[in-house]
Design brief:
- With about 130 residues, the protein is mostly beta strands.
- It is about 5% helix and about 45% strand.
- The strands form 2 sheets. The protein has a 6-stranded antiparallel β-sheet, with no helix packed on it.
- About 20% of the residues are buried.
């Protein structure tokens, strides 16, 4: 059994931030459960483009409002608390946060925590070593 709190993760190597975003990686590939689970916060007024070419991502918006644009299909969706989106076809997408957005995210295959978005917003596929 694994029990963790976001308070315990804060300030550790599982607490990763960039310009306008922060991701607390609660479950990672090294935990050996076949997915990773993150709390991600996007700052109000920011916009970010992502493309998870090698991962399927499910996102549940807990707090905040914004838009999600599917860049592959030229569709835009309004997001509010209770919204979920699933990137099941590896869609390139843009998030625009009108207010601070807090989301819970699941990745499959799991991320290791060492990935960095490349210039296209893509995470590389990195094999996880179980701890």
């Amino acid at each position: 059994m694994i029990v963790r709190t976001t308070a315990a993760i804060t300030g550790t190597e599982r607490d990763v931030a960039g310009t306008g975003w922060r991701s607390k990686r609660i479950v990672l590939g090294g935990d050996g459960v076949g997915f990773s689970f993150h709390e991600t916060t996007i700052d109000a007024g920011t916009e970010h483009e992502f493309h998870y070419r090698y991962h399927v991502e499910a996102v549940w918006l807990i707090e905040g409002e914004g838009t999600l644009t599917d860049l592959d299909n030229d569709l835009t969706y309004e997001l509010e608390p209770g919204s979920m989106y699933l990137l099941d076809e590896h869609e390139r997408h843009r998030l625009h946060a009108r207010t601070e957005m807090r989301m819970m995210c699941v990745f499959n295959p799991p991320v290791t925590g060492q990935e960095v978005h490349d210039s296209n917003g893509v995470y590389p596929l990195v094999a996880a070593n179980a701890v």
